Amino acid sequence: MPIPRRKIPAQLATATPTELTVDDLKRQLTDIGLTCPDSAEDKLQEYITEVESQLQRGSTETLAILRPATDPTRLAAGLGALHEDWEKSSEGNWTPDATGFGYGPDLEYIQFPTHFDWLAANNPRFAGVANSPPTYTGDFDSVSAVKMLFVNVALDASSTLVKGLDKASMQSVLSNAISPLSDANAKNYEPGPDTRVIFLVENYDPSTQEADAIGVLTIWWDLKIHDYKKKSKDDPKHRTSLEVRARSVLYSSVEELKADVLAVETHFKSNAFMMIPKPTTEVTIFEKRPPATRDTFVHSLPKVATEDSLQAIVLFAPNLQNVGCIDNTASPTTTTYSKSITSGFTFSTTQTLGAEAAFEATVLVAKVNFKVTFSISFTEQWSEETTETFSFSVPPGEKAFTYQGYLLAQILTFDAATGTYSYGKPARFVTNILTTSAEPLVDPT
Questions:
Q1: What pTM was estimated for this model as a whole?
Q2: In the Cβ-directed half-sphere of 355, how many Cα atoms lie within 13 Å?
Q3: pLDDT of the chain along its 445 residues, tens only?
Q4: Angle, to 10 degrees, between the axis of helix 113-122 and the axis of helix 104-111?
Q5: Cβ distance 285 to 378 under 8 Å?
Q6: How many CB atoms lie within 10 A of CB 94?
Q7: Is 337 left (phi over 0), alpha (psi -120 to 50) or beta?
Q8: Is 417 exposed, middle or buried (0-12, 13-18, 19+ CB in 10 A)?
Q9: Which of 369, 368, 398, 388 is nearest to 431 (CA)?
Q10: Dist CA 429 CA 435 (whole Å)
Q11: For residues 268, 271, 277 and 282, what is the CA-based torsion angle, rounded to 10 degrees?
Q12: Is the Cβ–Cβ distance between 219 and 198 less than 8 Å?
C-alpha cells in the first residue's frame, strides 16, 4: 500500500487575477508622459495580445502579489525587504480567507536576498532557484521598450519554477509594472528598480483545504530608456537597458519551511518579524544546560547543514581546568614551565563550522574571590582540535597556578519531520584562553 503524500494545510478563497487591460496600460503610459500615436488604444491592444502570446502556460498559481509600500529605489541593492515594507499590488488566483495565510512571514523572511543566498550556499537541502540573465540592451521606441519589459519580466520569473507560473498570474504582475517617475520633466526614463514578492501555491484543493506545495517568488527589474520622450521621424528609437533578477523556492512540507527559517535565524541571529534584519554574531553561553527548545537552538553555534539534519552546538557551564602549577616559594631564581595544550571540541567526531562562520561569545567564570571574563571568536579554525605550547614563569618566592578555560558542549538536533529538538552526548569545548592565579581556583580533582 503506497504511503500517502503529505499535504500542506491552507485556508484560501478563490480569486480572479487582475487583468492587463488597454485602459490600465494607457493610464500608466500617460502617467510617464507617453501620449504618442503608438499609445493609441488599438495599438495598445495589439501590444497586449502580442505580449500574452509570448507568455508560457504554467501551472504554479499565486495567492498574493505584493509590491513595495515605500519608494522602490530603497530596494536598489537587492531583491526585497521584509513584510512591513510590502502592500498588495494586484490579485492572484487565490486569496487568504479571514483566518489569514500563516506562512507569509516565514516566506518573506526566506526570500530576503541575504537569507536566500546564504541558504543556497550553505544548505544542501535548500531547493531555491535563482535566475539573473545578462542585461537586455537595444534600441527601441518607448512603447516597444515597455513591451520588452513585460515579456522578459514574465518569462524570467516563470523560468525559476519547474511547472512555470500561471499565465493569468503573470498578467496580474504586469498590470501595474510601469513605475512612475518622481520628476515629470526627467529626460530619461529611469524610475529605479521595482520588485514584486509573490506567494505561490501548487495544486490547492479547496475541498480539503490542502496544497501540494507553497512558496515564494521574487522578481526585480530595472528599466532605463534614454531620452524616452524624444520624437524623431528619422530616429524614433531610444537606447534601452533592462536588468531582471528572479528567485523562487517551493516547499512540499511545512516542516521544510520551518527548518530553513530556523537555519537562517540561527546563523544570522535575527528575528523573522523584524522589518530590517540586523545580523548579530553573538552566541549565548548558558550558565547551565538549557532545555531543548527552538530558543536554545537559535542562540547557539550553528553547524554546517547536511541533507540529513540541522544541528547547533549548545555551550554552557563555563569553567576552568588546571594545566600547570609552579611552587617557587623556596627558590631564589625564576622558574619557567612549558607545556603543550589542546584546544577545540572534544566530540568523538569532527564538528564542522562553515567557512564564513564568525561568531562571538563572552564568557564569565566566577569563583570565590575571583572572576575572569574572556571572549571567543568561533570561526572555521575550531572545526579541528589544535595543539600549542605555552610557557609561564614565576619569580623567586612566588607560587602560580595556570588554568585553561572550557565550556560544556552538546549538540542539539532539530528533527524537521516531527518538529522536535533533542540533545546528543555531552562533550567539552576547550578554549585557548589561559589565566593564572596565586591561589588555586578549582578542586585539584
A1: 0.72
A2: 3
A3: 344 456 888 889 899 999 988 888 888 877 777 766 666 778 888 888 888 888 888 999 998 899 887 654 444 444 444 444 688 899 999 988 655 567 888 898 899 888 899 899 888 889 999 999 998 888 887 777 777 888 888 888 889 999 999 999 999 988 888 887 777 777 888 888 889 999 999 999 999 999 999 999 999 999 888 887 777 666 668 788 889 999 999 999 888 898 999 888 888 776 544 444 444 568 888 989 999 998 999 888 888 666 666 888 899 988 888 888 888 888 888 888 888 888 888 876 566 655 455 677 777 777 656 677 777 777 666 666 788 888 888 899 888 888 888 888 898 998 877 778 999 888 888 888 888 888 887 655 4
A4: 80
A5: no
A6: 23
A7: beta
A8: exposed
A9: 388
A10: 16
A11: -40
A12: yes
Residues 6+ apart with CB under 8 A from 212: 5, 7, 8, 202, 203, 252
Residues 179/221, Cβ–Cβ less than 8 Å: no
Per DSSP, helices labelled H in 240-292 are 254-268
The x, y and z cell numbers of residue 51, run together, are 505580449
